[in-house]
Amino acid sequence: MAITVLIADDQAMVRQGFGALLGAQTDISVVGDAPDGKVAVAEAKRLRPDVVLMDVRMPQMNGLDAARAILSANFDPPVRVLMLTTFDIDDYVYEALSIGASGFLLKDAPAEELVRAVRVVADGEALLAPTITRRLIADVTRRRNTVRTAPSPALGTLTPREREVLELVAKGLSNTEIAAALFVAEQTVKTHVSKVFSKLGLRDRAQAVVLAYESGLVVPG
């Protein structure tokens, strides 16, 4: 079945451009759009798309508040949110990830990157641009230097292979890349990742990165 997408942006040309690009893909269907955050929340509840492309800066209700409202509804199956902005601003990045957004993408990213991002997020994986991942790690590292965080007791419940998978997730590898590194099937990796998240109470890969570095499981550099 096609991946269903809702596009929320206050600029009509952006909505139309993204809609045409995504609609041209055989495996993606654009089911609606919204000019502001308030409409985005209402349309997400009505349409239940697989992915919402959400601009950060919008009238009525900004994208972060709209994303929070959508994600807190805990739809089943889940509606995933991919944040979009023209500005690579740390505060937006961290807040978006903290409320459960599956990724953060700049609007000037190449067309193929946007299409790939929608597919990655729809598949249940988090999308973190390399520059954002590095800054996230740097921020965690700085906080570790000022606030000593005890290792999570839950790490002791992981098997050696699950710890290995967590380390690779924290280093930014996708399931496909982890499968290649460990010489196992991608479905096996997905199973390990699911068990790791369940045991550690993690929502997504962003939280996995933070926990791995805060606990000292992975050392920067």
Write the layout of secondary structure elements.
Elements (H helix, E strand, L loop, with lengths): L2 E6 L3 H12 L4 E7 L2 H11 L3 E5 L7 H10 L7 E6 L4 H9 L4 E4 L4 H12 L4 E2 L1 H17 L13 H11 L4 H8 L3 H15 L4 H10 L7
Parallel strand pairs: 1-2, 1-3, 3-4, 4-5, 5-6
Structure description:
It contains 10 helices and 6 strands. The termini are far apart. The model has no long low-confidence stretch (mean pLDDT 84). With 221 residues, the protein is an alpha/beta fold. Helix 6 (130-146) packs parallel to helix 10 (205-214), helix 7 packs across helix 9 and helix 8 (175-182) packs across helix 9. The chain has helices at 12-23, 37-47, 63-72, 90-98, 111-122, 130-146, 160-170, 175-182, 186-200, 205-214; strands at residues 3-8, 28-34, 51-55, 80-85, 103-106, 127-128. A 6-stranded parallel β-sheet has the order 2-1-3-4-5-6, with helices on both faces. Helices cover 52% and strands 14% of the residues.
Offer a concise description of the structure:
The chain is an alpha/beta fold and 221 residues long.
Number of helices: 10
Computed over alpha carbons, the radius of gyration is 18 Å
Cα distance spanning the termini: 41 Å
**Total beta strand runs:** 6
In the predicted model, the low-confidence regions spanning at least 5 consecutive residues are none
Q: Strand sequence of the main sheet, in spatial order?
A: 2-1-3-4-5-6
As a percent range, the share of helical residues equals: 40-55%
Helix/strand class: alpha/beta
Element order, helices and strands?
EHEHEHEHEHEHHHHH
Query: How would you describe the shape?
Result: globular
Mean pLDDT over the full residue set:
84
- Main sheet, how many strands, which sense, barrel? 6 strands, parallel
